[in-house]
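pinned: reference chain
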Amino acid sequence: MRIVTLSGGWLTAFDIDNHVRRALGPDLRTTQFLTVLAPSGSNLKVDAAVRLLCYANQCADRGMSVTIDLTGSPNALGYIGRMMFFERLHPSVAVLPQRPSPLETAIHRGRNGGLVEIEPVNRDGCDPGLPRRLIKAVELACANRPDIGPLKEATWTSLTELISNVEDHSCTTLDGFAALQVYRNRNNLVLTVADSGVGILRKLRPALLAEVPELEGASNGEILCESIRRGFSSTGEEGRGMGLQGCAEKALKYKAKLEIRTEDQRVLLVPSANAYEPDRGHHDGEMPYLAGTHMTFTFSLAA
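pinned: its structure tokens
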């Protein structure tokens, strides 16, 4: 059995990746029995909850025995329960001390204006009201920003593009997810859209290499960064496949951090004055394998 022991404090998606990497190395697909242990003091931000959910569901779908042990962290159990985490968790995943019942978590649903609970997105679509609920949460949280009008419009465009990509291109029976949480004591909100499909690199790499053959030996992370820099479409068709570059442009304009996680790569783009400058981008290779494309935006509540 392999055990991933989380640290204390508020964890991000990148923290989850690092804990998995330290415990299992870059390829957890060879593991048969996996336990994720949350000790006292552990808690998961919304992007961390979605990242853990994707790991657990993908592992369980491959036939792995997965256990999430929250016995030592009842606060984490209650917090991610209010996010509808357990309703989205693969039914074969064991939860300790016990999996909360849907009735226990449903009473909290929709009661927090700063939380849009984890909602499924798949080939059949999503809740038609999901994009509007996400935008409403952004509007309420960022009401004091002078650019709230165009920020709402840009967020709407990015969200509908990302959700549409999951619906059209994920090519998996596993659900993708979208969720949002406002953290007022940190003056930010975190919005994440993730899927467990084939991942953007499967189309992006061959399409980019066809246009720029000198990138033949580039790493996946370098392909991601170069595609954003060039504004390259994964389809080669004007007006289509521009989700990655378009989201990066909009995140830059509104001073948001953007994390892109796919397969074994993670790229974090941190805005500078007018661009994602090279020294403000962070590229992490040899991340634990995670299928799909996972994008997280972190916006300041004040411009």
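why pinned: Residues 238-242 have pLDDT under 50 and may be disordered. The longest strand covers residues 290-300.
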